[in-house]
Amino acid sequence: MSTTQKPQRSPTEIEDIILRKIFHVTLTEPAADASSDPRVVYLEMTAAEILSEGKDDLLLSRDLIERVLIDRLSTANNNNNNSPSASAAEPPFPYLVGCYRRAYDESKKIQSMKDRNLRSEMEVVTRDARRLAVSYSRIHLANPDLFGGSDDDNNTRKAKKTRRNASPLLPLIFSEVGSGSLDMFGGSGSSSVQSPPGFLDEFFKDSDFDNLDLILKELYEDLRSSVINVSVLGDFQPPLRALKYLVSLPVGAKSLVSHEWWVPRGAYMNGRAMELTSILGPFFHISALPDNTLFKSQPDVGQQCFSGASERRPADLLSSFSTIKNFMNILYSGLHDVLMILLKSTDTRECVLQFLSEVINANASRAHIQVDPISCASSGMFCNLSAVMLRLCEPFLDPHFTKRDKIDPKYAFSGHRLKLSDLTALHASSEEVSEWIDKDNTAKANDAGNGNESRLLQSKEATSSSSNTSRQNAKSTTKYTFICECFFMTARVLNLGLLKALSDFKHLSQDISRGEDNLATLKAMRDQAPSPQLELDITRMEKELELYSQEKLCHEAQILRDGDFIQRAISFYRLVIVWLVGLVGGFKMPLPSTCLMEFSCMPEHFVEDAMELLIFASRIPRALDGVLLDDFMNFIIMFMASPEYIRNPYLRAKMVEVLNCWMPRSSGSSATSTLFEGHQLSLEYLVRNLLKLYVDIEFTGSHTQFYDKFNIRHNIAELLEYLWQVPSHRNAWRRIAKEEEKGVYLNFLNFLVNDSIFLLDESLNKILEIKQIEAEMSNTAEWEQRPAQERQDRTRLFHSQENIVRIDMKLANEDVTMLAFTSEEITAPFLLPEMVERVANMLNYFLLQLVGPQRKSLSLKDPEKYEFRPRQLLKQIIRIYVNLARGDSENIFPGAISSDGRSYNEQLFDAGADVLRKIGEDGRIIQEFMELGTKAKAAASEAMDAEAALGEIPDEFLDPIQCTLMRDPVILPSSKTTVDRAIIQRHLLSDNHDPFNRAHLTSDMLIPDIELKARIDEFVRSHQSKKRSSGEDSSNKERIQTTSSDMLID
């Protein structure tokens, strides 16, 4: 039985079959039956040309295929073939990609061929086919009209005249880098187009740069366009991964940094324009933070995640926080990878640094209090840039900062890339900074000139010319390390980005708090006098508060909830602090007497930003876990009381705010207690420097200095009260009080007394005003007859006064508490001649207010609401009396008490003792207080006798300030006026100027008037002797006005 064998095909026939399968073309007319592939294009004209050239057959081969391919690519747009399938032919690019995919598939099938030679020959065929597909793909994308048209129909081609479509290569790149990302709501950006294995690698490999450059630039423009106005909830991940993929290609990196939109130029280019038009700008704009309505991103994060937040479950909010944080970190990582790839190449590093510096310089005005959203980039962009820059810094943020010596302080003034020299410096004025920079540049230029002279032996004139040239180019010749540039750029970006966003968050919180107060006031007014306008105002306020709340939660989600972001920033600022301290010789005290210009000229915001970040981080649970705070503690102790190093008193006050946050009872953590109780510099210098700053803050130079000092001293007082409980710090405090009895401690005590008097006096007066308005409002009939506007004004005043009383009374309580606990162990400074009368007057005034005739008028329905605790206050006042009496070895305190003609009354002591008994004070304290009252009464009697004995006192013996007899006359060097030493020294505690001509004056400048003192002493002796000889009795003469007992309140 015979069988017919299938005829074996020749290699040329196999090659023809493979090429027809790959390229979907034929040179022979296909059969008109259903079995023919409609995708195969019959190139009739091409076949005729080949036959006319004398070729025997129409089999496809490697020699013919490129010619055939060119004709096939022109088929869809030229009518040079009459094949019915020509009109349905695929457009060029999808066709070429399909060819590559089919060539890849055929190469896999070929592997099953048993004939090794045939298999090798066919591998060459498929490899050449892939090469041709890639090559003509490049040619087509670079020249879309080369084959007689583009991939689009007529309507689309008309539209493309005004707008170019996205590159067809983009979906293949998305598929290559993986586009399985999910947005927040489960949507996927996956593409149905898949890139054949190896296609993109071959497309971007071994090709002339000029051919690929145009294609790559269009790809970058498409990627940029795909993320414009996309928020973090949008599908930004495929474009970001595609961007990273392209820059990882050497040709791709080169094309990106040479793009005209890498660093856009133009006369009207500003920060916002750079964000919108640069290639990377829209990627950095992706954020959870709301932007100006003109540049709003979608989806709206606030609306999607935080609308009606007050009514949402906490778990829902936590889920939103976590999702936003995760997506932001994906963005940070992607952008960091892109910049890192470019920075690792020496060919593109300079371009990256140029881009960063241009963005920073164009957005310098973001540091202003009010930021113009039209001219400045968004907060979201700079927060993202902050996160990315911190990641770039990680290699030199090791625990010991071993690479910090590569940071050159001269970079800040070189003008190499960043414009930092115009920023406010730590201590130097702008003139001093300019002078120092000019001097340094001149020195560099002279060094360069001298070097040229020695090497080239030029003439004197030529050397001078060279020196001038070198002086002009001194700025640009210095080479700085990447670490140095990255350090300064990061510090500036954080100032304009992260720290600005934290400031915005703080202001948002304040706006919400004020808005809620205003809303409560409006609702209270509506309850009393409803009106349509009030309803409109309430509705408007509620909408504003909802938007504010959404914006605040967006900030919290992107920044405050990202612990890694915050800790990276803290680590960077720890480097800043350690590096700055290195400029002055390291962590050691005392500081050098002269501040080096490198430190003095450093931008002030370096330190201010570090302090602000620490304050914010201290209020975020667990944000400081594992953070090394010792270096920050050392820095604060070294510089908070050093105005010769850090001029701005508000910046030094901010350091105290940091310490206040770290107090164990404030932080809620015992971890920070070691910073205060086991830290060497803290034990030696903390109390001393806090007392010094308490004094320094009296004069800040600001027009609001009088009110600013109370908030600052509030922080210092809280810290001092805590330190008093620590035995080692209390011992240091006692030592300082003894060493500085007439120095800084006396000044501290004086300002403490001044503040106590002012705050309590203000509070008590405001209480009377509050009670008056309460009485008006309680009379309903009369109140409702008043005009609505008047009622609104009085209601607003009432709430305003309530807030003022609450704050002032809290501060007054703190000051009196500090006077009470310090006077228990430190009494000598209180009893100095220049201080004792001031203290006695204060105590008498407080006692009069608390137990005198005004007591009932200060009664409140809810005194605790206003921090007004009269019983506790009275106890502390009387303890101060008793403490000072115990330490009064020379018995001068009773005389100071009785000499107060404004508030002293002997019966106040009896009234005070009665109240103490009722509220249960220690009997021993009451007894000592009564004994002090008896001594004061006796001193008053003695003073009256002495006054009577002196009779008429000559004017030249009277102090010109208080018109009292001078005991120790001194001459003021400038005005030549003679005053009493104790009185002028009391004046100098608060004001170091001559009161008669405002010339500078200090205690050591006073000139004793020895001759006048001798005459005064003789006058007193002679009149006292006359009194004794005459036996005159003046004990019955009453010269002090007293208050009758019936005026006192039990």
UniProtKB/TrEMBL annotation:
Biased composition range(s): Low complexity: 459-472
Presence of keyword Signal: no
Reaction catalyzed: S-ubiquitinyl-[E2 ubiquitin-conjugating enzyme]-L-cysteine + [acceptor protein]-L-lysine = [E2 ubiquitin-conjugating enzyme]-L-cysteine + N(6)-ubiquitinyl-[acceptor protein]-L-lysine
Coiled-coil stretches noted in the UniProt entry, renumbered to this chain: 531-558
A GO CC term attached to the entry: cytoplasm
Origin superkingdom: Eukaryota
Location of the region described as Disordered in the Swiss-Prot/TrEMBL record: 442-472, 1022-1050
Localization, UniProt: Cytoplasm; Nucleus
Predominant location category: cytoplasm
Compositionally biased intervals (Basic and acidic residues): 1029-1040
U-box domain segment(s): 952-1026
GO MF annotations in UniProt: ubiquitin-ubiquitin ligase activity
InterPro entries in the cross-refs: Ub_conjug_fac_E4_core (IPR019474), UBE4 (IPR045132), Ubox_domain (IPR003613), Znf_RING/FYVE/PHD (IPR013083)
SUPFAM superfamilies linked to this entry: RING/U-box
EC number: 2.3.2.27
Pathway recorded for this protein: Protein modification; protein ubiquitination
Biased composition (Polar residues): 1041-1050
Keyword field: Coiled coil, Cytoplasm, Nucleus, Transferase, Ubl conjugation pathway
Class of this enzyme: transferase
GO BP: ERAD pathway; protein polyubiquitination; ubiquitin-dependent protein catabolic process
Family affiliation: Belongs to the ubiquitin conjugation factor E4 family.
Matching PANTHER family: UBIQUITIN CONJUGATION FACTOR E4 B, UBIQUITINATION FACTOR E4
Identification of the protein by name: RING-type E3 ubiquitin transferase
